[in-house]
Amino acid sequence: MIEIDGSYGEGGGQILRTALALSAVTQKPCYIFNIRKNRKNPGLQTQHLVGIRALANLFNARLEEDKIGSKEIIFKPNNIFKKEIEVEIETAGSITLVLQTLLLPSLLSQERIKVKFRGGATDTFFSPTIDYFRFVFLGNLKNLINLLPGKNELDVNIKILKRGFYPKGLANVEVEISPIVFNKKISFFGLKERGSLKKILIISGASDFLRGRKVAERQLSGAHQTPLFYKKAHLPIETKIEYYQTESIGSQITIIGEFQDLNNENQSIFIGASALGKLGKSSEEVGKEASMEFLRETKEKNPVDSHFADQILPFIALFTQRAEIKTSNITLHTKTNAWIIEKFQKGRFEFDKNVIQWYTY
To answer: Reduced to 3 states, what is the DSSP secondary structure of residue 45?
Structure first.
């Protein structure tokens, strides 16, 4: 059984998500202790329980000590899986963080899997917005999957039936994931430079209750007031204004940059940034925040933003023999994720300034 100290590195919920997903994939039982030991509310919280119980349900795994406040957990995987599950999230817990737990094992199942989310938030704090997940994370992951031997193509269909914001959540989302089949890893995956910016997509959305105050439009106006627009004015910039029927009042803006992939002219590289509305923060400030983050992430020629660098590591370890990617910033989150992965896979990560390298033993 693989033992993992849950207080290592950033010591948060990502340790659970990565470890249990890899446990399910590799069929190696896992024991995690000191869960969130140094956090304000240590131990398992509702958000974490939802994700690990969903994974256990989907793959008929045995789960022990899964209760609020528990600082340890035992996960014993099973190679039997269900074709469809319903995940109920009573809080405004992040749907995208639960998807991070479920996606990798689902891609390596035998049949198409459907996950129905009832409740939770599509766009909430300390997690990727669902638009970032759809357009940036999945867009870039597709490039990696396409390189696998055989006729593999990433097929993840996300239907947003209802958005959810903090504090009530109550979103309604359905996700279908088709499996991939491969018997050989990619010999080398390199992503160290990106090409020219092809276009920018900005999605600015808010609860329908805020339509009269033109919150979505004002967020976009705030983004316009930054160098993003007047420096990139010659490029195609597509903007979408959206209003949603939601139970809680909220807003979000996500900026997606599409760049040339210098390794494959038929593919694109995506870099994203986002911001959420918050009481006391003007809509214009929300737009500026997302826009300035996008500028920071794209200032250099790095092809991978700091958020994606963290999220792609388990896929690199499972699907490649060797890889080298360059990101805008190697975070403690990223290094913690690498440490966990090395416990399940025969290989090692190395970090040199902003470059991440993976070697299989």
So the answer is: coil
Instruction: Count Cβ atoms below 10 Å from residue 229 Cβ, excluding itself.
Output: 16
Q: How far apart are CA 180 and CA 200, in angstroms?
A: 30
DSSP class of residue 154 equals: -
Left if phi > 0, otherwise alpha if psi is -120 to 50, otherwise beta: which for 32?
A: beta
Half-sphere exposure of 125 (CA within 13 A, CB side): 6
> What share of residues in the chain are helix, strand, coil (percent, to 5)?
35, 30, 35
Q: Give the pLDDT confidence score for residue 143 in this predicted structure.
A: 93
Q: Which domains does the chain have, with CATH numbers?
A: 1-80 (3.30.110), 83-184 (3.65.10.20), 194-298 (3.30.360.20)
Tokens of residue 346, six digits: 């025969």
Residues labelled catalytic? 333
Residue 230 has pLDDT above 80, yes or no: no
3-state secondary structure 205-273: EEEHHHHHHCHHHHHHHHHHCCHHHHHCCCCCEEEEEEEECCCCCCEEEEEEEEEECCCCCCCEEEEEE
Tens digits of residue pLDDT in 202-225: 999 999 999 999 999 999 999 988
Using alpha carbons only, give the angle 25, 188, 26 rounded to the nearest 5 degrees.
10
In this prediction the pTM is 0.95
